[in-house]
Amino acid sequence: GGEGKVSNGETKKKRKSAHNEITRKSRAKVNDRFKHLMEILPPPVNKTELKHKAQILDHAIAVLQDLILQNKTIKMDLALTSRDALFHWVDQVVATSSNFREVMRSFMELFFFKRDWKYGEVWFPSASTNMMLQYSYVSALVANQGALAKMEHFRESSLALRFGPGEDVAGRVWLSMRPEWHSPITDERVFVRTGLCHRCGVDSCMAVPLMSRGKMAAVIMLFDTAERIQDDNTIVLAMEVSARIGMVCGFVIPPAGGANDAPVL
């Protein structure tokens, strides 16, 4: 009986020792990985000393996000070099997007990063009526958290709005199938959210149709917090990208749905 107890005790010690050795090697391996990560990462812009693993990981995430953004902007720069390059970019966006929301996000990012628009909306028709509903939104490139909060208020205050064909900017573009540009936004008869725009610092709006198989599918609206002189080149770019999206992914544009089904980009 005594020998059995001794044997069991020795077994436990061996197991504990083996476990400790595995833990030591694992920690050493992780430390080596972090050391290697520090060697290949660029130093923080603010020259903060990275002492802890969490700091190193946060810095690595920030660097990776910056690289992803740089890669996106390089592709966008190439897309803007020619019409063929633009269509190739759209084709790649559609091919690599898992849903229509991602396609719209790329559309918005092109105009955020390369044309300095600040906020975007997509309006779809309701399945049960001829009224318009806000389907999704994107906000980016606002100067500070205060401006971002105003854009969020602009979005939230717009969610309940509905427009029939010919009503307001979204409805008029839906009916006419033609783009509109408004800056400054001053007339509630033209744009019902004029008061909201003033409260949120929104001064410009561009809206373009998205057509699929020869029919209207959606209206895309872009907003800026500064006044903008109408730029026909930007309108043409938006129309060409929209038309290409409608042609390439018309079969996967989601059917109209209720407001509760409208996801946020």
Helix and strand element order: HHHHEEHHEHEEH
Helix proportion: 40-55%
The assigned structural class equals alpha+beta
Total count of helical runs of at least 4 residues: 8
Radius of gyration (CA) equals: 27 Å
| Strand arrangement in the largest pleated sheet | 2-1-5-4-3
Contiguous uncertain segments of 5+ residues = 256-265
Characterize the largest beta sheet: strand count, sense, and whether it forms a barrel: 5 strands, antiparallel
The total beta strand count reads: 5
Give the termini distance in whole angstroms: 69 Å
User: In one word, what is the shape?
Assistant: elongated
Strand content: 5-15%
Average pLDDT number = 84
Brief summary:
With 265 residues, the protein is of the alpha+beta class. The protein is 54% helix and 14% strand. Helix 2 (53-79) crosses helix 3 (83-96), helix 3 (83-96) crosses helix 8 and helix 4 (100-115) packs antiparallel against helix 8.
Describe it.
The protein has 265 residues and is of the alpha+beta class. Helix content is 54%, strand content 14%. It contains eight helices and five strands; from the N terminus they run ααααββααβαββα. It has helices spanning 2-40, 53-79, 83-96, 100-115, 145-158, 168-176, 194-200, 232-248; strands spanning 119-125, 132-139, 180-182, 204-212, 215-224. The chain has a five-stranded antiparallel sheet, with helices on both faces. Helix 2 (53-79) packs across helix 3 (83-96), helix 4 (100-115) runs antiparallel to helix 8 (232-248) and helix 5 runs antiparallel to helix 7 (194-200). The protein is elongated and about 90 Å long. The termini are far apart.
